[in-house]
Design brief:
Elements (H helix, E strand, L loop, with lengths): L4 E5 L11 H9 L3 H22 L5 H16 L5 H10 L9 H9 L3 E7 L3 H11 L7 E4 L10 H11 L6 E5 L2 H9 L3 E5 L16 E3 L5 H6 L2
Parallel strand pairs: 1-2, 1-4, 2-3, 4-5, 5-6
């Protein structure tokens, strides 16, 4: 059966939970573990956005390590290099959200093309997804590293469509990040927002996702009716 749509799944925050690093951090920074994990993630994204705008590219792994250093300095909890290396290694073992594997399996049974689509370095994303046991459920890993820029640069979303061989309106982004959904819509793609927390706010930019779900396991039924 011909595949009707391509679905590009954002990885961090959509398939895996980067804030789960708070558990690893607890042994290193104690009660600061939760704010440390949150600030690290926020700085990681901020650095990728800024570098994309400035055209001063370094890959996402470098952004992540620099964000880690900034977080330590901000929270006044300097870690030895060995602990920093352990935390970077932990990024390859982030836990999947519990419904991910079953949801990808169910979508794979439909006429849908499934790929990972990430700001992350391809080798790192492949290792992460392999460690989680879901890499075989995806047909490809599409990384911004090929273009040396970051989401939400419109060229990145156009690249997803080209890599999947689909027209933009047949290419879907699936992401828990509202800024990512808005970026995809601005580039002419369709988009699913995974609203993982009830209190999450979608940026009021007069742009709306095509579909909003609270978990990925709501998607198979929705696409089955398309």
């Amino acid at each position: 059966m011909e595949k009707t749509y391509a679905l590009g799944f954002d990885v961090y925050g959509t398939l895996v939970d980067p804030l789960a690093l708070a558990e690893t951090l607890r042994a290193l920074v104690g009660e600061q573990a939760v704010p440390f994990a949150g600030l690290w993630r926020a700085k990681q994204l901020e650095y990728s956005f800024r570098r994309g705008l400035m055209r001063r590219y370094v890959d996402f792994d470098v952004c992540t390590r620099q964000a880690l250093r900034c977080t330590q300095q901000t929270l006044h909890c300097e870690l030895p290099e060995s602990d920093q290396d352990r935390l970077m290694e932990a990024y390859l073992y982030l836990p999947m959200f519990p419904e991910v594997a079953a949801s990808l399996n169910a979508l794979k049974l439909q006429s849908l093309q499934l790929v990972a689509f990430s700001n992350g370095v391809e080798a790192s994303i492949r290792a992460l997804l392999a460690n989680a046991g879901v890499l075989p459920l995806l047909e490809d890993v599409v990384s911004v590293d090929d273009l040396r820029t970051f989401k939400p640069d419109p060229e990145v979303y156009a690249y997803l469509a080209r890599r999947t061989g689909r027209a933009p309106n047949q290419t879907w982004l699936v992401s828990s990040n509202a800024w990512d959904v808005i970026g995809a819509k601005a580039a002419g793609l369709r988009a699913v927002w995974v609203k993982r927390q009830p209190d999450m706010v979608f940026d009021p930019w007069d742009v709306e996702p095509d579909v909003t779900v609270s978990r990925l396991d709501e998607l198979p039924d929705w696409f089955a009716q398309k």
